[in-house]
Amino acid sequence: MRKLLNFTNVRIYISLQLVEEPLRIFLVKANALQILKISLREKYCDFPKGQ
């Protein structure tokens, strides 16, 4: 029983790792995209800084 439980924990851990890595990459890319959008908006639009 314990062996089975351990195996399940390992499988859950591995699948979490597999999900976590693309998620982290996605978040980093989304963050970079957001920063890029903000800098482009500041460069090309004459909005006051608050909007």
Through-space gap between termini = 59 Å
Main beta-sheet annotation: none
- Count of extended strands: 0
Strand content: under 5%
Oligomer: single chain
C-alpha Rg (nearest Å)? 21 Å
Task: Give a written overview of the molecule.
The protein is mostly helical and 51 residues long. The protein has one helix at residues 2-44. It is 84% helix and 0% strand. The longest helix has 43 residues, at 2-44. The chain is rod-shaped. The protein starts with a helix and ends in a 7-residue tail after the last helix.
In short:
The protein has 51 residues and is mostly helical.
Please outline the helices and strands.
Blueprint: H1 2-44
Give descriptors for this structure.
51 residues; mainly alpha; rod-shaped
